[in-house]
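Standup notes
- DV: blocked on the single-chain target, sequence here:
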Amino acid sequence: MADAPEFQRARSPEAKRRREASILEAAAALGRERGIREITLTDIASAVGMHKSALLRYFETREEIFLRLTAEGWAEWSQALTARLRETRDPSPATVAQAFAGTLADRGSFCDLLAHAPLNLERHVSVTTVRDFKLATVAAREPITAAVQEQLPTLDDQDVLDLIATAVSLAGAMWQIANPGPEVAALYRSDPRLAHAVVEVEPRLARILTATITGLAGKSGG
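- DV (later): unblocked, structure below
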């Protein structure tokens, strides 16, 4: 099957950007629908009406596509979290923790990507792609650091770096636990002894992050 006419090879930089954007949008939609681990390069190519070999002109692997989406997720989350922190009128470890937990829990697809990024997305791309991704996360952390320190001035840069790392690591892991397959989810609901396996991401993440921030603030103020 030949590529559809509208998906003939992009010749200009602008056409290439549009093509890449359509591929990223298709991958994001599939990820939201079925979860990142279930999506293949063939699935993404089919969603945009391309052969897999044609798609490889734009992205080296499926992992590069999802790593790009993770970088975009970092930028969007950073903006949302920074805005929420700066709206806080009564700063405390609990309010800062809730801002982190609420904005992450609202972004299930981003949490899914966060879990997969270090496990496999960064392992199946070029070193250049990994570097670009890491630099994107650094850029996303900078406004978060400034906003947290406006709320809690006793926290230094390393404290906030540790807080962000803890928040995104836990959010990624908790989202996976909170979204098991249908059969496992039914098992958890059917057996009271397994009630502990049912995780609500936002309240649990907020509770752990409150304790984390309280400890960091106590250390910094000591």
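- Follow-up: The mean pLDDT is 91.
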